Amino acid sequence: MKRVIAIMFALAVSTLNACKEADPPLPDNLVQFESAEQGLDATTTEATIKLKLSRAVDAATPVTLQVTPTGITYGTQFTTTPAITTNTLSLTVPAGASEASFKLTKAADLFLAGTETITFAIASAGSPVIIGTTKQLTVKFTSIVSSGTTLTLDGGTGGASAVNAVFVDLSNNAQTAVKRASWDLGFSSGTDFRVIINNMTGAAAIALAKNDLTQVTAADTVGLVLSTSDFSPAGLKLIDDVSGDLTKTVIPSISATDTDNKVYILNRGTSGGTSAKGWIKLRVLRSGTTGYTLQYAGIKETTFKTVTVTKDAAYNFGFVSFDTGAAVAVEPAKAKWDIEWTGGIYITSDGTNNIPYYFADQVYINYLGGVTAAEVLTSTVSYDAYVESNIATTTFKADRAVIGSNWRATTGTVGVKTDRFYVVKDAVGNVYKIKFVSFTSADGGVRGNPKFEFKLVKKAS
Length: 461
Description:
- The chain is mainly beta.
- It has one helix at 2-22; strands at residues 30-33, 37-39, 46-53, 61-70, 78-81, 88-93, 99-106, 117-125, 130-131, 136-140, 148-152, 164-169, 174-179, 185-188, 195-197, 204-207, 264-267, 280-287, 291-298, 305-310, 317-321, 326-328, 339-349, 354-365, 372-377, 408-409, 415-416, 420-425, 431-438, 451-458.
- The protein has 3 domains: 30-144, Sandwich (Immunoglobulin-like), CATH 2.60.40; 184-329, no CATH class; 335-458, no CATH class.
- The longest helix is centred in the N-terminal third of the chain and has 21 residues, at 2-22.
- The protein is globular.
- This is HmuY protein.
């Protein structure tokens, strides 16, 4: 009997080993640039350039770039961090990471003809990493109009609750990743005085009858329900209009009469993987005709802090974080982004009423910056067949959520919806078609790192 058991055990081990030997090997781990071309216009002095890997490396991995400047001199007209030595830039992908980056800085007060370029080419990568197809990047010291490329967005960690929002400038092949929880309030640079709360964290706010911050205590929050996560229709009254209508912000237009501006209690939100933070009491006043004065404190604090935010017409909003107590950079300049991938509160139905609901993988357009977009079903025209002549019959909308979450499915057949694509017209009139490729393991992607392809349909005249 013991001999039979031993034989059976040996057979089981042999079968297990055979199965292990039959497991398919992992695909090659490729390192490459995000795009083959990028612009650095006259107003931009610095850019962070990334190299992406197919997956994280187990050990620190060196990558070497060959650098070829044309019409511009290293050390006096531009620099990099880390520094270039004999036309070579050495980078290291840290263990456990799937990217490396370097900073390109243009000298101050530098006047260029616009024909200058720098070519960065991947010369070598440490084993087992292999150089991918987009092995060369040309940086042009002028604005470019991309003919299109494929981008994988840097959502950071968190998967469906990815920590980053990503802004994309289609014409420049560029993406900018920003922590979703890096800000609390946005201050409009428009003609009206409007303040938004952070929809990406599920923040909620409510007005008190008081207009003196020092008179607000913890007693004012007793019995106060301030949440967007309880699926109550009442939650919609605690947030800004989800379509982005700035006439419908939960904090109304800031009055020129100080006494009209009430104190608000703000729950900073915990959606999208954000950690819980203490509630804030705040009040916003006008700072002359050009900005805002923010007063804020913790609920139990008896004194408050003040931050001044000046309107800047180059941006849709100026942003403030209560973590830093200061202005923070969030959105790029409004002329330098077209779409934003993020997560945020939108609306759904409970069968009877609309209720607030946090949707991952939202794609918003820069409607305040003049961007419009349209959804096109492939039953009308295919992505490949969509050309300039189709633009005349395309209905573009200045709707923040015209793409929204419509491009993917998380129930039923999970993955990118292949029966539609999108057409985006940027603020200067360039028209691009966009096809989402993947966003989750069900369609060959990675949650938190959606991939899409875009192509120029018509260049602005």
